[in-house]
Amino acid sequence: MRQHLVSHWRVWLVIAAIVIVANELIDRNFFDHREHIDGDVALVVLALLITVLGSYFVARVRKPRGLG
After folding, report:
1. Which of 1, 3, 7, 23 yields a CA-CA distance of 20 to 30 A from 55?
2. Cα 3 to Cα 52: distance, rounded to the nearest angstrom
3. pTM for this prediction
4. Cα 49 to the chain's mean position, in Å?
């Protein structure tokens, strides 16, 4: 799991940036304009946790198995 996390760190960074930007756009356009940094951090952590675990399990399922 650690190797998977470290080997794809650029992907996790891009996902975090996308989540932050999307959250800011949605907050500014549809909700009040007060800043809540805790909510932003929690949303990024949740998104990264879901994508890291999801991609890890997909990689494990698709991993070629040995013949013996």
Report:
1. 23
2. 11
3. 0.61
4. 6
User: How far, in Å, are 20, 21, 44, 68 from residue 14 at the CA level?
Assistant: 10, 11, 11, 39
Measured distance CA(53)–CA(32) in Å, rounded = 32
Q: Where are the alpha helices (DSSP H) in the chain?
A: 2-7, 9-30, 37-62
Which tokens go with 44?
Answer: 């990024």
Angle at 65 between CA 60 and CA 66, to 5 degrees: 145
Mean pLDDT by 10 residues, the chain (68 residues): 78 86 75 63 84 84 66
Q: Read off the DSSP letter of residue 65.
A: P
C-alpha span between 37 and 24 (Å, rounded): 10
